[in-house]
Amino acid sequence: MVSDSPLLVVQGLSKHRITSRSLPPSRAAERSSSSSSLSIPSLRTQQVTSIDKGKPAPSSNGLHPATGDPPGLQLTTSDDNEADAEEEAQEGTATQVDRVTKSTGSLTPAHHSVITLSDEENTPADYLWYDVHFTLNPRDTIVIQGPSGVGKTTLLRAIAQLTDCDSGTVLLRQQSPKEMGIPIWRSRVMYVPQYPAIFPGSPLDFFFKVKQFSAHTSKDYWDDPVDIANRWGLDEDLWCSEWRTLSGGQAQRAALAIAIATRPDVLLLDEPTSALDPQSTRLVEDTLRDYTCLWITHDPQQAERVATKYLDLRLDGSCEFREAKSPSNHGPTMRTG
């Protein structure tokens, strides 16, 4: 039986269509001082240099400038940043997207997770999303749906503390990101982008680097990403190949397997099977039944297969949270082989 006890709670998380990032520094400071205090700390990650077409961003020692940790899994490619910029343009934010290339983010398995979102009294018209509220229970999958430009990816990035919001609190086991520490938070609430960055070295090299993160060194047990991806048909030899030589589907499976192997509490999945064939997609879906996920998909058939609940985002800033018709999808599954 799955516990109904919430682990991840999001309250009052709202994002304005024009955020403080688009204001001059003096206006941004004025707005910050006059607005109600935020329970969510600033989600803006220190700007470094964007990764250009898979080339690693230059740095003096290859470590995160703020923490000294090696690059995190939540690196983004320039294509990923361009996609974010396009989405924000569609959302009407007219803001400059931060070019984040290094973070101490990490991954967590979903056996203990719940999420709830809500907002203080405000008018939805000026918000990208407003008064979002829901609860994510252990081993649930909430599928986030909505038209292009509605802010689906932005919502995932906000929960992962990778982009800023205007109000709200996010709690994991009654702790805020500030109390927990952002690196630890990102190791337990893990964002997996649709297009993984092309890291230097091989996927196996990167996995060993992730294990060195300060947010992960206290972990006593890790899953084997090679074994995880082997269930999805990824050849073991590819783990020693350069990232740049992998196809889109191979890189997507390797990155997702590394994320799962770090044993996160919640997986934030942005089109995680978009580059996979139908057979591999079904295998990945079967594995993810054992995890707690927020999952963006534009495939309605996939949504029906994986969702226990839905969060529908609308262009007017409103949203609807509803149960799936078959919430038992995430019951125990029979595995073969």
UniProtKB/TrEMBL annotation:
> Superkingdom of the source?
Eukaryota
Q: What InterPro entries does the record tag this protein with? A: AAA+_ATPase, ABC_transporter-like_ATP-bd, ABC_transporter-like_CS, P-loop_NTPase
Residue stretches of biased makeup (Low complexity) = 20-44
Pfam families referenced in this protein's UniProt entry, alphabetically: ABC_tran
Q: Where is this region: Disordered?
A: 13-108
Annotated GO MF terms: ATP binding; ATP hydrolysis activity
Compositional bias ranges of the Acidic residues kind: 79-90
> Boundaries of each ABC transporter domain copy?
95-335
Q: Does the keyword Nucleus apply?
A: no
- Positions with biased composition (Polar residues): 96-107
Give the keywords, sorted: ATP-binding, Nucleotide-binding
Full protein name: ABC transporter domain-containing protein
* Organism this protein belongs to: Dispira parvispora
